[in-house]
Specification:
Elements lengths: L1 H22 L7 H42 L5 H6 L1 H4 L6 E2 L2 E2 L10 H13 L5 H7 L4 H12 L1 H9 L1
Antiparallel strand pairs: 1-2
Length: 162
């Protein structure tokens, strides 16, 4: 009985294979696969041109943003750039290219408040692993310098706007 089932199954599979072969390519959907494949070539040049236009526009926009950012911002220390700017923005606004950054706005805060916050982050009284990691190896004098520099951002911006 097992042999009969095996022979019938084998004949059935061979018949399905022959039918598939007579209908065209199995993996491409037969004749319909040819139509879809032809459509790929029709759309390809338009897609490439659209991507090139989009990339060109993006490059122009990026250049304008860089130009505007460089002319409108004030000079900050390399220490601020390396430790603070990535989260709080180059000018302490908490924004970059119109998008909110991870850190809060520092612009306009008083030196004493900033210094107290920096000391609290370093000591662990305020919980933020990123801030603690950045401040752990800094001396008290470095924290005072950061607070003084950030507190001066508002005055620097006002001087630029005059």
């Amino acid at each position: 009985m097992k042999r009969v089932i095996a022979i019938v199954s084998t004949i059935f599979v061979l018949a399905l294979m022959a039918y598939t072969l007579s209908q065209g390519r199995a993996f491409q959907g037969g004749e319909a696969g040819n139509i879809i494949e032809d459509m790929k070539y029709i759309d390809a040049p338009k897609t490439v041109e659209a991507k090139e236009e989009k990339n060109d526009d993006e490059e122009k926009l990026k250049a304008l943003r860089d130009k505007a950012g460089n002319s409108g911002t004030f000079e900050v220390s390399n220490a601020y750039k390396s430790k603070c700017a990535s989260c709080h923005g180059a000018d302490g606004s908490g924004m970059q290219n119109g998008k909110k950054l991870m850190g809060p706005k520092l612009y306009g805060q008083e030196e004493a408040v900033l210094y107290k916050d920096l000391v609290d982050f370093k000591a662990g009284r305020k919980e933020n692993l990123i801030m603690k990691g950045l401040l752990i190896n800094l001396e008290d004098e470095d924290l005072k310098n950061f607070a003084k520099e950030i507190a001066g951002f508002k005055a620097k911006q006002e001087a630029l706007n005059k």
